[in-house]
């Protein structure tokens, strides 16, 4: 690990106590700033403009009456007065603002943009509000020539625009309850234009940048030459992408392909698809073998397979409408499964499901093929019943799961006992065996106090953390991002790079971009140059570090969930030793509608070869663009020439060798799972619907990567295996599939008591011949959000990086889990022991986000898998500042 430079905006300003709220820009790139990326004011008020339309006034009053007198008292987890306060208070947009280098210099390799996307409500809600309900806001740090420009912008989604024009929230929230339905009666928005938030992540494939949110299509963005971020529009990929798309597509570092999916309430509940290296969406692969709608937030790919987790957290449309409840609920009688399907499957005929009792994985770090098995590293939510309403009670345990494709046996191995999530790896290792994983430390979640480095190659049952970086007292970060020192050097070590993240100091009210955040809504920040406070930026970090996450544009009218916010992209553009920060909302249809309306009313939900997309699995990807000045633009919702419909997973898998993208979608209607892919030109290939077994025993479905239908889909029962994110997966010589993914060991707490969850990273080996899946826990620590070197996506990798969840300070009053650090795991170890080889804690009161792996030599095929930098957003709660930090090198 290495301390990297920090940057800070010009100091010519009044003391924090004398500054007007929500106006000062949040600097990143290990940068201190007076503006919190995720916190600027403990409280704020909604716009008081009068709604001109009489019907709107009447129905808004009706909503208020129901929320106040009919609905039961609002729980603290969805009470906007509690959820949107302190570290999670909404912030304003910030135009491109140059940051002052207070010490040191920016490494020349960090020439580019680091962008973070997250929820930030445009308006205060009228009722319950979940932490995930906010409009997407992009925070970008554009680094070039030793300068850093910070910018924060909302993703101008349809929802944002409609509510902005109306000057009040209109569209309903999904995570908190089905509020805002009255907007439909007054016809203030057209659902056909998308209702997503684009607040979860970003993806760059097909030469485009997208803001993603799984409840809608991607929103295309553009980063201007001055560091600003523009939303170009909702992108449907020439009509090929419809409904929605995952916010976690997988980009193969070798092929440039993007793999994704979508899920929903109607069959197929899951649809897998991909984009070729040119960003052309390939046909959908409906997964009908997914028999009930499931929360499918992330997945993993190997060089041969795509791995999905059918966990115990499902979707219930009826309860959402009739009971005004969250659509996500825990089914304790359901046996979690892992689904494995050929990476290029054309249908789900080869989809296989493996039962994995107790395994509820929401994020996947990496996966690879190993002999006749698949090994996957992923965090496992141990208390899934708290996942939606009491995130602070959730404990994530990173596990290495091995699926024996011959015997059908699945083995799991926890790799750390820490509460970790948002794990990342050197992206060059996506889909192949990696050794290191960098994870955020929950303190408790959703606050991230640091990052740990895990060595997932260790197979013994012992702590796998090899390094950690805590952000400090009161400092909390976001999901880290790994930047390799030599991305073009195949010989570079897997962990030879920088780990960057935004960090926020709650006490000081300052944010910084640490070359290593939180969930409070923040304002857009225009391109703002960051000051290097110490050290310099490596030349190989030249590029953009972008994070997409939920950030509500407006406060909801009802309950609000952490995943329901609009997508906000936070970007740090690094170039010539300079870093420019910019945060922009993904301008989704939902965002635009709500922005124009001045209040939220698009349903809040979970919110890919030369294009960058912002993803949210409830909608199609949103194409985004990074401008030369470090800004982020939303180009629009992309349906890949009409070939992508409904939605796509927010976690597509991009093959680093072929550039092809593999993805899927899922939903509440059959086929519940549809697998599909995109060729190297981003052309979407046909869907491969997959039919699921209604028994709901956890399974892993395996379908050919280029499947045209689900005929090759095979399902393997994996009792107790419930994952939402996939780290990586690969095929082994003996035809087995190995996948790395976090396993939620206590899924009953996933929705309401997240602080009780424990996630164990497992390596799963699927033996297709024997039909046996074996699982190996990589660590006993509570880890999540695993990442790998993207060059290893879909192929065997040794290292994975994950966040550490820390829930020791969780309480009913402060239910959100926190990420206190990142660990690096060596997943190549075949023994059942702790695989953590390094860790980095953020420090007391400091919490981070999902890390990102940046290879030092991305173009060097001889480079070590872990020759990289791991970067992440970090927030310091005590002073109240955030920043991006490089965690490992």
From TrEMBL:
Protein name: Carotenoid cleavage dioxygenase 4
Comment on bound cofactor: Binds 1 Fe(2+) ion per subunit.
One Gene Ontology cellular component annotation held by this UniProt entry: chloroplast stroma
Compositional bias of kind Pro residues: 7-29
Pfam families for the chain: RPE65
High-level lineage: Eukaryota, Viridiplantae, Streptophyta, Embryophyta, Tracheophyta
UniProt record, GO biological process: carotene catabolic process
Segments of this protein annotated with the region Disordered: 1-31
Organism, as annotated: Malus domestica (Apple)
